Amino acid sequence: MASLLLRYAIITAGVAVGLYATLLGLLTRSSFQAHIVYLHKIQMTWFKDLNKPESFGFLRNQVTPFSIKSSDGGALYAWHILPLELFRQHESTLIEEDSGFVHNIESRTAFKLLRDSPEARLVIHMHGAAGTVGSGYRVPNYRALSAGDPENIHVLTFDYRGFGRSQGTPSEQGLILDAISVVEWAMEIAGIPPSQIVLFGQSIGTGVSFAVSEHFALRTPPVLFAGAVLVAPFADVATLVATYRVAGSFPLLSPLARFPRLFRYLSTFIRDSWSSKDRIARYIQASEQNSEKYRLTLIHAEDDWDIPWHHTEILFWNAVNAMSTQNVSYEELERKKSESKTYLGAAGSIMEWRTQHGIVREEILKTGLHDVVMGNPVVSMAVMRIFADTCLSTE
Hints:
By secondary structure, this protein is an alpha/beta fold. It has 14 helices and twelve strands.
């Protein structure tokens, strides 16, 4: 009996090793990597019509489904979400209009309320991997984003190429081009000044947000937004795959992290690096050199099983070094944080690093998981705080 059990154990182990080796082989192929990194074929809204936002709990015509052209010609599916109090004030006009997908958004009352109000604020939402604009915790996230000013804070969210109804195949460069196109639409077509725009990103969307922030900060003249709120960010893909578990359970390359040479070799096959730690540094350095105001809030939950919260600590460290005239070691920063950060008990902790021009805020929560946190008041407060700081700095 013992020998039989041993034989089955050996066979099972051999099959597992064989399957894992096959997975590693597939991961070296860029097309397979795209499916693993972006999970764009997992829609999670198969049985709902995105052109009927009411089925996701919105009021009639509170959301306008439409499309934005990406710079390389693809159509990006988008939602413009009205803040609740503004909807109440114009409810009778809004509900009289046809509902569903709109081909000419500029003819709609909701768009005119965004474009024509000097008090309008806009949060441009960049979602994480998998799903669509209507998936999971994204709908309560939209409500949290506008909760701080339900008369003036609009939300614009969209699906990247290859996600949902948007055309194309996802890639790092492609997602960045898509997000830049959406931001340009907000500034040029909707007429929202960058000082009245907050970028919001979650998970892979934080990588997109960092890239967009850097892109506009490096323009001549530079374009700086009111700020950015980044939930569950990651340092870069190479660091992420060393710890990442699909759905918080299945490890990708983390079992190989104990073999540095093999891990480094496999890392050379990574197609999309998403180096947020470098982009946050370049963005801050450019903003400091140009004497431009900037506001970044990094939020992460300790019980995030998808992206470990130490990624936010790495990003914060890179930000601090970009803000400082002298290099600060990781260990030295941790000592300073232990002395200076605000402890909030069960709510976690807060640490801010300030210069004459910028503020980077790190919020480590005790709970919130990877997605649930998006609908929590901590997100509402982050948006409110950035818009309030922007108003004060312009007075």
